[in-house]
Specification:
The protein is of the alpha+beta class and about 70 residues long. It has one domain (about 20-70). The protein contains 3 helices and 3 strands; from the N terminus they run E-H-E-H-H-E. The protein has helices spanning about 5-10, 35-50, 50-60; strands spanning about 1-5, 20-30, 60-70. A 3-stranded mixed sheet has the order 1-2-3, covered by helices on one side. It is elongated.
Length: about 70
């Protein structure tokens, strides 16, 4: 996972927004699932994950990139 934020607020105590501006999640999953099943896994995982939901609903730029690799 990668997150972009203005560290001047958190580290130096400057005024501004201490929230993340963008978050990118990269996941590599070793599986024998077909493409349709893998897509369903990703969608359901993101729908049920409270952290993902927090990011998506916060208004920041959220990106997820899931890759399927063979077992």
């Amino acid at each position: 996972m990668q997150g972009d934020l203005d560290t001047a607020v958190m580290v130096a105590g400057e005024e501004g927004n201490a929230n993340f501006d963008a978050v990118t999640v990269r996941a590599t999953v070793a599986t024998d699932a077909d493409e349709e099943t893998f897509a369903k896994l990703q969608a359901e995982t993101e729908r049920r994950c409270p952290v993902t939901q927090l990011f998506q609903r916060s208004g920041l730029e959220y990106t997820s990139d899931w890759t399927r690799t063979a077992l």
